[in-house]
Inverse folding.
């Protein structure tokens, strides 16, 4: 007769693993996470984390607490619990500027390991013979831009949960023209998702529809049905009921019983540009408003103008670098060499590019129309004038 290979130690270990396995609607499911975390957790945060677990059939939730109520903590509780259940395929998609903050908070508050994936670290993993760098034994953190760029690698992993921070950036993801949103949806199509945003609704109810499609394309049916039911007709109560199934929002006024907020007093300080700064702004604005210009490719007219105006709000050195890039293009045209389109990604950092992605959708159609109407004839005198102006 074969002897049992399970020792008393193994028996206790497996018993503990079984204790950690709770049903999705069991309030005690978060118990291990609460013990493992090193921070003070508020009732509404526990409630939100339980909401994320409430239905095993749910494809995801939208946690839309007001600013400052700890949505990161809520998502962290969920990740901590999944980690304690030995589920290692966890992904966080966030703005580039928040990647290190996420990594630090996971380590300090929940003792969870993470790795930030970007081009540099991705290539390092490839060199170390890792087939898919997104396949990690740590929580993976990456930016919106990188998740969209590497959507095929993202889709190859069976993620237990994908957390999307500042999810309002995907409010237009239902549009086919929204390349970033469409790519992220493809990469996370069959995964459970937790969307975090303090502003689920900014300008139109359509934004709620857009966010819902990130979780499930069929929560509200198609766009035409949503417009008819909730925009053309006043079905507010029904909309609230439908939202309650996947969206949870807590306001500051709801938590004053146990959170004392410091009263804030806004201080307004006026800023006046110097004469030199004002002159630069006016001359550059006049340059950008020229109907015909060789400095900016016709196919990028609207988008590049938007980028340059953003750079103008940054620093003189940033403006100088951008103008130098444009000047190099003009000098190539002067020498009769082919001048490629401007590389927008070199003018802005990754986080600014994400913001630009949202704002530029309508401009792409205008640039496409301009591209169709472009001509190849060059007026040498006009070209020389533009070079002298720069």
């Amino acid at each position: 007769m074969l002897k049992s290979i399970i020792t008393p130690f193994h028996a206790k270990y497996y018993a503990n693993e079984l204790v950690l396995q709770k049903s999705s609607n069991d309030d005690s499911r978060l118990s291990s996470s609460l013990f493992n975390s090193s921070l003070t957790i508020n009732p509404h945060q526990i409630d939100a984390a339980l909401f994320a677990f409430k239905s095993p059939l749910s494809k995801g939730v939208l946690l839309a607490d007001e600013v400052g109520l700890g949505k990161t903590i809520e998502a962290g509780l969920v990740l901590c619990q999944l980690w304690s259940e030995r589920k290692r395929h966890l992904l966080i998609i966030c703005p580039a500027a928040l990647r290190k903050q996420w990594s630090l908070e996971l380590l300090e508050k929940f003792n969870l390991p993470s790795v930030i994936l970007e081009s540099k670290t991705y290539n390092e993993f490839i060199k170390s013979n890792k087939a898919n760098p997104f396949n990690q034994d740590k929580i993976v953190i990456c930016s919106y831009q990188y998740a969209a760029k590497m959507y095929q690698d993202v889709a190859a992993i069976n993620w237990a949960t994908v957390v999307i921070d500042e999810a309002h950036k995907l409010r237009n993801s239902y549009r086919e023209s929204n390349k970033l949103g469409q790519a992220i949806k493809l990469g996370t199509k069959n995964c459970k998702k937790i969307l975090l945003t303090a502003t689920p609704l900014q300008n139109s109810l359509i934004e709620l529809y857009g966010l819902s499609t990130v979780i499930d394309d069929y929560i509200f049916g198609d766009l035409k049905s949503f417009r008819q039911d909730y925009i053309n007709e006043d079905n507010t109560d029904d909309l609230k009921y439908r939202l309650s199934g996947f969206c949870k929002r807590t306001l500051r006024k709801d938590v004053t019983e146990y959170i004392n907020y410091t009263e804030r007093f806004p201080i307004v300080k006026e800023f006046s540009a110097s004469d030199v700064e004002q002159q630069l702004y006016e001359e550059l604005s006049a340059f950008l408003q020229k109907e015909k210009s060789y400095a900016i490719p016709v196919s990028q007219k609207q988008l590049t103008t938007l980028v340059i105006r953003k750079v103008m709000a940054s620093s003189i050195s940033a403006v100088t670098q951008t103008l130098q890039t444009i000047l190099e293009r003009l000098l190539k045209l002067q020498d009769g060499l082919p001048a490629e389109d401007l590389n927008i990604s070199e003018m802005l950092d990754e986080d600014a590019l994400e913001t630009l992605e949202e704002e530029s959708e309508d401009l792409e159609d205008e640039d496409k129309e301009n591209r169709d109407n472009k001509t190849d004839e060059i007026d040498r005198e006009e070209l020389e004038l533009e070079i002298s102006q720069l």
